[in-house]
Amino acid sequence: MAEPSRTVMLLVTFMAIFTLSRIANAETLGTIGVNWGIQMTHPIPPKIVVDMLKANGIKKVKLFDADDWTLSALVGSNIEVMVGIPNDMLDRISKYSHAKDWVKNNVTQYVKDGGVNIKYVAVGNEPFLKSYNGSYLTTTLPALQNIQKALNEAGHGDKIKATIPLNADVYASSSNTPSSGSFRSDINDLMVQIVTFFKENGAPFVVNIYPYLSLYQNPDFPLDFAFFGTGSRSINDNGKQYTNVFDANFDTLVWSLKKAGVPNLKIIVGEVGWPTDGDIKASPSNAKKFYDGFLKKVAKKEGTPMRPGALDAYLFGLIDEDLKSILPGNFERHWGIFTYDGKPKFPMDLSGQGKDKYLIAAKGIQYLPAQWCVFNNEAKDLSSLAADIDYACSHGDCTSLGYGSQCNNLNSQGNISYAFNMYFQMTDQDVRACDFGGLAKIVNRNASQSGCLFPVQIISAGTRIALAKAMFLSLLVAVLLFV
Ligand SMILES: *[C@@H]1O[C@H](CO)[C@@H](O)[C@H](O)[C@H]1NC(C)=O
Ligand SMILES: *[C@@H]1O[C@H](CO)[C@@H](O)[C@H](O)[C@H]1NC(C)=O
Ligand SMILES: *[C@@H]1O[C@H](CO)[C@@H](O)[C@H](O)[C@H]1NC(C)=O
Ligand SMILES: *[C@@H]1O[C@H](CO)[C@@H](O)[C@H](O)[C@H]1NC(C)=O
After folding, report:
1. Catalytic: which of 80, 126, 321, 332?
2. 174 — phi, psi (to 5°)?
């Protein structure tokens, strides 16, 4: 049972979620949104995140599902929301009755007066990525059609549009110029059907563009071309000059849409950003450089050579996600503009005026006790050490230890301690998780060293739900006992 002060705080937090606060409707075109993913062991309580979004003037979020805890926190905030349907649900949604249920439970339920300001439903997430081997090729379009139909039938169709966030790998250019771009030949017919459907329904094309990945995947890629306005390199495409890969990539899509017969289809950048750790080029300074250039570009309503004007974009991502797959690389868990505990990582001016100031951190984060799990240097039998580190790192997140990362300069003891601590924190500091047959011990002295943060985990959304439930039950018991 929690002590009284925390109990009161939890009650307040809990009730605040149901308190509807209204904010005047604001124009969100050309303003910056963020991707709010929650693939993390310790999600920050959503209400705190929503307050952080408001404090920073962020008016649009893109979600990857329709998680009730998240959507409930957005009620009354007037923040514009894109809710998502994960790829593994596409098969189900390709049956109309299921699409109808989905809309009823995950849209209609929330949009009631003063509810959640849902504007888009993202059907799948990059479903045609080459690495998915075509798993979603037959189900995605039917799912899209079903969701839009269900939205229309439920009376939301005018306001809420179904779309599909697609990776930029759905199109390519044959000669490295945007004008030679077209949809990938293996999916061209399908893409034409999809973009025609978007046009008929007033839905936008949502594309994820990653200059960082161009750089990461190709060692010969010119560094400056990944940023904005810093390099001398330029591509001339029939008189149009390209000085950065973002514009070139975006306009390859513009040309692909032209060739598919929908030259004026609205485009939204669904994900764009730069990671801050897990690779030599993933650093706070490079991320700052990228965002500075990008945000200025958006503020100036510069657009691209083929599409001058306002640009709609969602940054990726809001907060680091320590459960993301690291198959693409260790940087995957470091895309956040905020750390796991809601602190801004580098100066960033969302208004694009280039002011050297930090975003406002999350308020009201509660931490687990200030203790760490480290290598016990009195241990005698080290025979299981390698296996223990493997175990700790396969459960906890060791992606900051690798080459070029924040914690790469630790000595070997530091490495071991880091692994043990990440596992220990991940388990909510369970004492059994800091044993490893006597190789590990709990300490109260901050174990962070030489520029490497040894984090202390936060009390998470999940923990709070459990505490709130426990508290509610004990209140109930108390009430029952006294009447
Ligand atoms: C959305 O609706 C479907 C269908 O009713 C349901 O199975 C699902 O759990 C709901 N919630 C989310 C987060 O998708
Ligand atoms: C796709 O195919 C490759 C090679 O055959 C395989 O390694 C991978 O696991 C497959 N991925 C999916 C999502 O099926
Ligand atoms: C620490 O671990 C990282 C990642 O496994 C490795 O690259 C590095 O060489 C290790 N350092 C020492 C001193 O063992
Ligand atoms: C531990 O030290 C690091 C580096 O000085 C600091 O950033 C962090 O906030 C400290 N952690 C705690 C719980 O005091």
Report:
1. 126
2. -80, -25
CA 234 to the chain's CA centroid: 31
Top mutation candidate among 105, 108, 151 for ligand 1, by most atoms within 8 Å of CB: 105
309 plus 403 within the same structural domain: no
For the Cβ of 211 lying below 6 angstroms from any atom of ligand 3, the answer is: no
Q: Is residue 341 in some structural domain?
A: no
**Known catalytic residue: 80?**
no
pLDDT in tens, 199-243: 999 999 999 999 999 999 998 999 999 999 766 788 999 999 999
Neighbours of 159 (CB within 10 A): 12
User: Does one domain contain both 377 and 245?
Assistant: no
Distance 54 CA to ligand 4 centre (A): 27
Active site residue 126: yes
> Are 408 and 329 within one domain?
no
Q: Which domain holds residue 447?
A: 372-457
Q: Which atom of ligand 3 is nearest to the CA of 411?
A: 13
Residue with tokens 């990857």: 64
In this predicted structure, the answer to whether residue 469 has a pLDDT above a threshold of 90 is no
Cα(65) to centroid(ligand 2), Å: 24
Residue 54 to residues 76, 80, 147, 181, 423: CA-CA distances in angstroms?
12, 12, 30, 39, 33
pLDDT digits (tens, 9 = 90+) for 410-460: 999 999 999 999 999 999 999 999 999 999 999 999 999 989 999 999 999
Query: Domain total for the chain?
Result: 2
Could you tell me the CATH number of the domain that includes residue 36?
3.20.20.80
Inside any domain, residue 481: no
